[in-house]
Design a protein that fits this description.
The chain is built from no helices and 11 strands. It is mostly beta strands.
């Protein structure tokens, strides 16, 4: 089992910044991908950004140039620096971790942290 705990959400004005963290614990495989998804009311859950254990990153087009994902493998912690926030970034942000071993993979999810951007 893997436990994921997010922190750092809150309320910010448009144009401001927030930083999220996700601390992972438990049975974390050496090869894994961590990521941030978000879900706004009435909308589908969407991938915001992901990062592999090797450091390869992927971003949604809507956040490219504004958000930066990073991780500290020694601390099993992932970060999301969010700059130039927009009201449409308002959502619950969820941390995920995908353990991988050969053809096996398993996904884990955190409880989420609310990010609210006021106009």
């Amino acid at each position: 089992q893997v436990q994921l705990v997010e922190s750092g959400g809150g309320l910010v004005q448009a144009g401001g910044s927030l930083a999220l963290s996700c601390a992972a614990s438990g049975s974390i495989f050496s090869i894994n991908t961590m990521g941030w998804y978000r879900q706004a009311p009435g909308k589908q859950r969407e991938l915001v950004a992901s990062i592999t254990s090797g450091g390869i990153t992927n971003y949604a087009d809507s956040v490219k140039g504004r958000f930066t994902i990073s991780r500290d493998n020694a601390k099993n912690t992932m970060y999301l620096q969010m700059n130039s926030l927009k009201p449409e970034d308002t959502a619950v942000y969820l941390c995920t971790l995908k353990n991988k071993y050969g053809g096996f993979s398993r996904d884990y999810w955190g409880q989420g942290t609310q990010v609210t951007v006021s106009s």
